[in-house]
Structure formats: structure tokens, C-alpha cells
Amino acid sequence: MKMTQLTRVAMAAAVVASGLVCAGATVANAAPDCTQSGPNLDGGSLMTLGAVPYKSGPAAECRTNETRSGKAYIWCRKTNQYGNLWYYARDADSNQPGWVYSGDVVSISGSNGARCGAGLTPPR
Predict the structure, then answer these.
(1) H/E run at residue 117
(2) Is residue 118 over pLDDT 60?
(3) CA distance 92 to 106
(4) Could you report the per-residue pLDDT of 58-117, keeping only the tens digit for each?
(5) Rounded Cα–Cα distance for residues 108 and 63 (Å)
(6) What is the DSSP string of 28-97?
(7) Whole-angstrom Cα distance, residue 65 to residue 113?
(8) How far apart are CA 42 and CA 2, in angstroms?
(9) Which range is the signal sequence, renumbered to this chain (predicted)?
(10) Rounded to 5 degrees, what angle do the CA atoms 64, 70, 73 make?
């Protein structure tokens, strides 16, 4: 009898634990929004570390619009759902806008640190 109760308790605990793991995974694995752009709120500029992708949204999984290098004008910045900082910027040579990962940036000049905020606009 003790073995049956112990088995039931163990099975119930396993079911509860698996539900908690699944619930946590759902939030962490939510797909990023790759259809964002940001308002022009920042008068600063950045320099990239060689040729870097300009993404359609602030996440590595988002589509690459173009690969550019050099100076870009910062419009705003955003920390994504993974805790990574991205800049919405426009390339100085091609005028290509896109999201640039902060890890690909070697310097920033004149930025006011403006955040993109919740009112993100659809890409043009």
C-alpha cells in the first residue's frame, strides 16, 4: 500500500513539474517581432565593426535587410526580450534603415540614449 501511495505522489509531482517547465519555456521561446522600426528620436551616430547585418527587427532571428559597414545615424535603441541591446539606425551611405546589434558597434557619438518605446512603427 505504501508503494502505491508513493508512486501516486511521485507521478503527481512529475506532472506538476513538467507543467511548470512547459509554462516557462513558452514565455522564453516566444518569437520576436521582426516587423518593427523606430522613431527618429536620437541625433547620434554609431560606427560598426566591419560589415554587419541590418535586421528587420531587434533579434538575430529576424531577416537581414542588407549588410553594411561604417557610420550609421541612430534613431533609437531597444533592449529585446533576450536582454540584448539593439539600435534602430540608418546607414550613412545607402540610407538603409535597420536594427544593428550593439555587439557589432565599436563607437557611438552624440547619442542621447533615446529608447524606441512601445510605439514602434511598421517598417517603410
Answers:
(1) none
(2) no
(3) 16
(4) 999 999 999 999 999 999 999 999 999 999 999 999 999 999 999 999 999 999 999 997
(5) 24
(6) HTPPP--S-B-------EEEESSSEEEESSSSTTSPEEEEE-SEEEEEEEEE-TTS-EEEEEEETTT--E
(7) 24
(8) 68
(9) 1-30
(10) 80
> Within a 10 A sphere around the Cβ of 59, how many other Cβ atoms?
19
Cell of 117: 518605446
**pTM, entire model:** 0.72
For 4, 18, 23, 118, the CA distances from 10, given in Å and listed in that order, are 10, 12, 20, 45
Residue 83 φ/ψ region, left for φ over 0, alpha for ψ in the -120 to 50 degree band, beta for the rest: left
Q: Label the pairing between strands 97-101 and 45-48.
A: unpaired
pLDDT digits (tens, 9 = 90+) for 3-56: 455 445 455 545 444 443 334 444 456 788 898 888 999 999 999 989 999 999
Map out the domains of the chain with their CATH numbers: 45-109 (2.30.30.40)
Pairing of strands 71-79, 85-91: antiparallel
